[in-house]
Amino acid sequence: MGDDGNPQRVAESVGPVDGGMWSVRRLRGVLCSHLRFMWIALMVLTVLCVAMQILGVVRQSRNDKVLKQFANEKLFSMRLTIEFQETLATTQQPSERRQSDHVPLIEYIQDINQGMALRRERNNQQAGIIPGVGLQQDRRARKITTRGKPGRLTAAAAAARTEEGKSDVSKSSQPAPRFVSEVLRPRGNHFATRGSAVSPRFTQPKPQHSSALLAASQRGINPKNLESLRRMFPSLPRTTSHLLSAASANIAAAEPAAAGAAVARAVPACQPKTHIVFLKTHKTASSTILNILYRYGDSRNLTFALPLNKHSQLFYPMYFAAHFVEGFRSRAVKRVMPEDSFYFSVLRNPVSMMESIFIYYKSIPAFHKARSLDDFLTNAAHSYNTSQTNNHYARNLLAYDFGFDNNNNVVDIERQANLSISTIEKSFHLILISEYFDESMILLKNALCWSLDDVVSFKLNSRSNRTRQVLSPGTMEKIKAWNLLDWKIYSHFNATFWRRVEETVGEAEMRREVAQLQERRSQLMKTCLKEGGAVDPSQVKDSALKPFQYGAAVIQGYNLNPGLSGATRKQCQDLITPELQYTSALYTKQFPELAAKLVSSQKQAAANRAMPPVVRTRTERQRRSLLSNPNRAYRNQTYPSPTRLP
Ligand SMILES: Nc1ncnc2c1ncn2[C@@H]1O[C@H](COP(=O)(O)OS(=O)(=O)O)[C@@H](OP(=O)(O)O)[C@H]1O
User: Fold this and answer.
1) In a 10 Å sphere around its CB, with 0-12 CB exposed, 13-18 middle and 19+ buried, how is residue 86 labelled?
2) What is the reported pLDDT for 351?
């Protein structure tokens, strides 16, 4: 029927029957002749698509199975801010290298020195720790730290490297902790070469670490699972990236500023370690430690794994991936660090840490509306939303930074804590304690075979007293309960820290070396600092040395003594350079061409901001996408080109 229901109109609209038959026949003919191949091709494509879908599902379920296996074995991921340094360690004599076998091999001492036991108890009381907590872990800790044998590893690696740059770290007798990046979540990120990104140092002849596994990532993988991962992802290379080999050991440290530094500069009779991974945790004095590492590497022209595109962090809070590191060019290059790398990190008492976090991260959703820390803790159970961005800062931040689930909600918190602890122990050679910063530096110095001067530092990133609050005992207890996982982790490593002091340095020697370190620091403070100490940011004269301010915290900085010059000025300035500025300076030093391109792209962006909105949109979009998408930036090997104005 037609629109108006008239049958005659319907017949007219359809047309004569013959014509209709002809159309159908013609259509069939066309389908069967001219377009036949297209139809066949479409069908083949459809079948292929379906097959790929099925394959995808099968592969996904295989991945899930492996992931589940990891989850069952409680393998964790770490969110790392990694710094690494390396050098061809050829400067020491064979006799010196041999002695490194004696560097800190940890022996189990059954008979605990009475004085040290008292000292530890006193320290624990100061930190609010119940005596004995975590001691049940000591035996295991001893086993694991002994396994690391850092001194021996260094010796083996160094010896191998002296043979014309060829080395085989597999010959080192002890396996170092291993981390595999991206293997669990292959994202298909291929980075293309960005020729200009490769510093000349990266192009020098490289030693091969034939058995070194990828050594820097947030995903801690049990070595026994590595083979199955390799089967799943054959692209996982067996050789370390040759980009890693680069920097030559130009041992030309800046002259110590003050006289009488001979003791501090004394070269220990072992091989200094320069392959280092530092997991930078939050609000734990980590910036001060980073400054130590930066100065050490900077003065010796060592190479750092710096974030792509001059970012300040390796894309935290994302899990670490090798392609976040500037200079890593291909997906195949997954190994950021050699196997003999020394892994360490730092913890802080979660009570004082939370007080600091609450002020610094006041703007995160969890803290935003809280009138006080106590108010937050009282109401947190009802209002805390884990899924809101940045709320991870509010709870068990230590656990989170190490890559663990930071919520206390799991049924068996004790088990979760024990698994976290044993994973950290397996992965790290040394865990420092921020409350015992100077003692930590002595342990670090000994473990790395560095000199006292190498670990001297000024306190960085420190809040002014104006933005500190005194906590009541009740609030402290609430903090411990809220951060129970962190509390357990911290308590354990606080205990093992002192055990390590006993076993390696001994109380008397530790006291002596800490005194030396403090003496050296006060000498340097007198030499370097105008006011002799830290000042509020408003009083920092040189804006290039002003620390980054955030949240409700007032972060203090330093003024250099006027009249300093030459190497002394350089040394003093390095000591007080805040983290962001130092990272940026090292990036420029390692990647001068890229840094210049970034500067010009930033200038361009600034110029664009002055343009009318329509002109601006495209350039700005392009710039943002390149800067925020590392892989795309890599693939394109380019930064936004200057946009011509219409
Ligand atoms: N040498 C030394 N000894 C003891 N404590 C120290 C040291 N250096 C820094 N700090 C304190 O560490 C806090 C800053 O930590 P971070 O540098 O890790 O912070 S950040 O996450 O990088 O922003 C910050 O703590 P708060 O002042 O409580 O916020 C610093 O005062």
Assistant:
1) buried
2) 97
**Atom number, ligand 1, closest to the C-alpha of residue 463:** 27
How far is residue 225's CA from residue 242's CA, in Å, rounded to a whole number?
Answer: 25
Residues whose beta carbon lies within 6 Å of some atom of ligand 1 = 282-288, 356, 434, 437, 459-463
Q: How far apart are CA 324 and CA 310, in angstroms?
A: 10
Which atom of ligand 1 lies nearest, measured to the CA of 355?
28
Q: What is the pTM for the complete model shown?
A: 0.61
Q: What angle do CA 363, 366, 370 make, to 5 degrees?
A: 80
Per-residue pLDDT tens digits for 380-398: 777 889 899 999 999 999 9
Give residue-wise pLDDT tens across range 29-88.
666 666 778 888 889 999 998 888 888 776 655 544 433 333 332 223 334 433 333 322
The pLDDT tens digits for 473-529 are 999 999 999 999 999 999 999 999 999 999 999 999 999 999 999 999 999 999 999
Give the atom of ligand 1 at the shortest distance from the alpha carbon of 282.
21
For strands 342-347 and 430-433, give the pairing: parallel
Please compute the mean of the pLDDT values over residues 362-391 and round it to a whole number. 90
Q: How far is the CA of 495 from the centre of ligand 1 (A)?
A: 21
The CA 284 to ligand 1 mean position distance, Å, reads 5
Strand, helix or coil for residue 504: helix
Q: How many whole angstroms from 169 Cα to the centroid of ligand 1? A: 36
| Predicted local confidence at residue 234, as pLDDT | 30
408: its two tokens: 């206390």
Closest C-alpha to 450, from 95, 83, 104: 104
Query: What is the CB neighbour count within 10 angstroms for residue 527?
Result: 17
As for the ipTM of the complex, it is 0.99
Place of tokens 């300093």: 564
Spacing, Cα 462 to ligand 1 middle (Å): 5
**Cβ-contact 165, 208 below 8 angstroms:** no
Protein residue closest via CA to atom 9 of ligand 1: 285
For residues 212 and 202, give the distance between their C-alpha atoms in angstroms, rounded to a whole number: 18
Q: Is the peptide bond before 612 cis (omega within 30 degrees of 0)?
A: no
State the residue for tokens 């020491």. Answer: 92
- Angle ∠(310,315,316) on CA atoms, nearest 5: 130
Extract the tokens encoding 638: 């380019």
Residue 110 above 60 pLDDT?
Answer: no
Q: Three-class SS of residue 640?
A: coil
Choosing from 80, 83, 284, 468 the residue with most ligand 1 atoms within 8 A of its CB, the one to mutate for a pocket test is 284
Percentage above 70 pLDDT, the chain? 56
Q: Is 465 left (phi over 0), alpha (psi -120 to 50) or beta?
A: alpha
The DSSP code for 505 is: I
Neighbours of 6 (CB within 10 A): 11
**Residue 18 in 3-state DSSP?**
helix
| 530 CA distance to ligand 1 middle (Å) | 22
